[in-house]
Design brief:
3 domains, EC 2.7.13.3, about 325 residues, BphY/WalK/GraS-like, His_kinase_dom, binds adenosine-5'-diphosphate, 5-stranded mixed beta sheet, 7 strands, Helix Hairpins, two-stranded antiparallel ribbon, Heat Shock Protein 90, about 15% strand, alpha+beta, binds magnesium ion
Length: about 325
């Protein structure tokens, strides 16, 4: 906060300095021009008056006085005008500096929140691993079986952290280096097929029937990212559906776009959550309560960055308790 206030003031000072320099330059030129004109007028009047020497002697001093007074008035007016302009420039500059710095400020705030959230997310499994290890080490009669059980439990936590850091890496890759991602011709139907395949084991475990319907559509994109994108949506559709339901994935052409739809008959998303589900770390309450649904709230933010890298759009329609439909449209 302090940093931004002082940056704002410094920026305003720079604006003012530049404007003051320009003003001084212009004012000097203006003052020179005007006084030069006045001097010329004075000389012309003097020449006329010389023809009447008596009168000339009388008014000469008066005329000089008038001339000097006129010069002083010009100078004074210029000074007032300059002060006025600098005053307005100061206020406007302060306002503009605030406007210029605001996006940077919010970006840094978001970054701080991100680091805090990420550290928190890593701390939980680490704390649990640490206390398990401590308990095990204190156990004097530790046998191999107990030790293995403990290691297995540790491994689960480590796996969680691993998948968390994978998510983070993926997210930062798209957010920071999205524009560097290699684009090529991609068969979107094939990408959807691979995404379905990645989730078949999970679907089987959750007793969800995965259906895929495709048209042949080719787009310019990054094949791995597109598989990841569709896979994230299918993964969610499975995670947030009760056993026995269907998840339908379709790829089609609509006008100049390729459209991928992932439709589930799951828990749905509350209206108030919809604007936030693409935010990093956001998880709707219903999914937080369901202990068995684990996740970090990063899937959809990665999905959104991938869609943005492809200059597409992602939308969601959902009815609580009935199901959700995620629609991605990508330019062909
Ligand atoms: N198909 C879906 N059905 C219901 N809720 C969903 C669905 N997809 C996403 N959500 C909601 O959006 C939130 C964010 O999703 P995501 O970013 O993938 O995080 P995660 O799955 O790790 O919780 C989820 O926690 C969930 O509340
Ligand atoms: Mg998810």
């Amino acid at each position: 906060m302090k940093l931004f206030e002082s940056a704002r003031i410094r920026l305003t000072a720079w604006y003012l300095l530049i404007i003051a320099l320009i003003n001084i330059g212009f004012s000097t030129i203006l003052y020179r021009e005007v006084t030069w004109e006045l001097e010329r007028g004075f000389l012309r009047a003097e020449q006329h008056l010389r023809m009447q020497p008596v009168l000339y002697q009388q008014v000469k001093e008066l005329l000089r006085g008038e001339l000097n007074e006129a010069k002083d008035i010009v100078l004074l007016r210029l000074l007032i005008l300059n002060g006025f302009i600098l005053g307005i420039a100061g206020v406007a500059g302060y306002f503009l500096a605030g406007k210029t710095l605001h996006p940077i400020e919010s970006m840094i705030d978001e970054q701080k929140r991100f680091v805090a959230d990420a550290s928190h997310e890593l701390r939980t499994p680490l704390t649990s691993i640490k206390s398990e290890i401590e308990v095990t080490l204190r156990d004097k009669n530790l046998n191999l079986k107990d030790a293995k059980t403990q290691l297995k439990s540790n491994l689960q936590e480590v796996d969680k952290m691993k998948s968390f850091t994978d998510y983070l890496l993926s997210l930062s890759r798209y957010e920071a280096y999205g524009s560097d991602i290699q684009m090529e011709d991609v068969d979107l139907a094939e990408a959807a097929r691979q995404a379905v395949e990645r989730n078949t084991a999970l679907a089987k475990k959750e007793k969800i029937k995965l259906n895929l319907e495709t048209e042949d559509v080719n787009i310019k994109g990054n094949p791995q990212s597109l598989v990841e994108l569709i896979s994230i949506l299918i993964n969610n559709a499975i995670k947030y559906s009760p056993k026995g339901k269907n998840v339908n994935v379709s790829v089609s052409k609509v006008k100049k776009n390729a459209v991928v739809e992932v439709i589930d008959q799951g828990v749905g998303i509350e209206e108030k959550d919809i604007p936030h589900i693409f935010d990093r770390f956001y998880r709707a309450d219903s999914s937080r309560c369901k202990n068995d649904v684990d996740g970090f709230g990063l899937g959809l933010s990665i999905a959104k960055s991938i869609v943005e890298v492809h200059k597409g759009e992602i939308k969601v329609k959902s009815i609580l308790g009935k199901g959700s439909t995620f629609i991605i449209s990508l330019p062909r």
